[in-house]
Amino acid sequence: MIYLDNGATSFPKPAESMRAMLGCMSQYCGNPGRSGHYMSMKTGEEVYHSRRKIAGLFNIDQAERLVFTKNTTEALNLGMTGLLKSGDHVVTTSMEHNSVLRPLKTLEKRGVEHTIVKGDERGRVSASKIMEAVRPDTRMIVMTAASNVTGTKMPLKEVGKIAAEKHIIFMVDGAQAAGSSVIDVEAMHIDMLAVPGHKGLLGPLGTGALYVRDGLALSPLLAGGTGTESKSRLQPKDFPEGFEAGTINAPGIIALGCSVAFVEKIGPEVIGKYEEELIAYLEEDLRNMSHIHLYGPEPSEKTGICLLNCDGTGAEELTALLSDDFGIAVRGGYHCAGLAHKTIGTWQTGAIRVSVGPYNTKHDMKALAEALWKVRKR
Hints:
- By secondary structure, the protein is an alpha/beta fold.
- It has helices spanning about 15-25, 40-55, 70-80, 100-105, 125-135, 155-165, 250-265, 270-285, 315-325, 340-345, 360-375; strands spanning about 1-5, 65-70, 90-95, 115, 140-145, 170-175, 190-195, 210, 290-295, 305-310, 330, 330-335, 350-355.
- The protein folds into two domains: about 1-10 and about 265-375, Aspartate Aminotransferase, domain 1 (Alpha-Beta Complex), CATH 3.90.1150; about 15-265, 3-Layer(aba) Sandwich (Aspartate Aminotransferase, domain 2), CATH 3.40.640.10.
- The chain has a seven-stranded mixed beta sheet with strand order 2-8-7-6-5-3-4, sandwiched between helices. Strands 9-10-13-12 form a four-stranded antiparallel beta sheet, covered by helices on one side.
């Protein structure tokens, strides 16, 4: 199968990542931070190395401020619910994933208000519009690094500067940019960064992380065993253990560290440029097909995503057809981001999302274009 659903999860994974996971599970997989024997300590050391490797990719000086989660959704929930309280105001955008918008909706019950800044028809959001939405009681700006619907890249550096000047917490959802775009928490003034391990970082499912800048008093999302302060019934708030209650996904985290090393060796900017070239190659063909409608900005303004619709065939029907008849995997529907679809004009129809990764080729793009051309003749 030609896999073009990397926006959901990347495939395939680097061989060294799979070897690391198998090696952990077959040779030394103890419970890290819980025992003093070799297997536990070895697992703990490897988790520590992965934490440092991932932190380094985002220019995070204090690796212990990087908390492992099972995905970006958990990381975003931890960051927002762990900091926001009654009377706080949050600024966000209409291009957000439900992992941002639903927690904010839930937090309304706690007395937290939010303002949604609308993007344009291509999913672009200007820093000036963000600035206009800031109020005296604004405590946080939370926004995606790139839309999971259109791929549109957001002005992180400009918004981060605004947040820093106004002493507002700046939280970034890095789900669609980590691994294919440079994210520097210092240069971009990012206070909290949520990332998945299994997308652009090419790690296994069930891995993610949240970076929290030193000085932010975060409350844990879960309470339970941490391997520290076991005589106390109060949940510790030390980083990272106080925010990783229970047994962590050590094999996945260790594999993720190897995947990040793979990404770092190539370079996120190199991967991003390659994916941009693939999308440009695909869209050049698709623009010559009158039955295909493209959404979003030019390839240079977005990540490796092409969003489209096909006259006469619904998004979910076309997804099934491409899979069953042509062996091509894409994603159709609303991509857990209904408000983004409303913003760009696909609220009624949804759309097909083609999302590429570093293992895709121009041959894959040509195969998809040919399949979409054949669909017209049916």
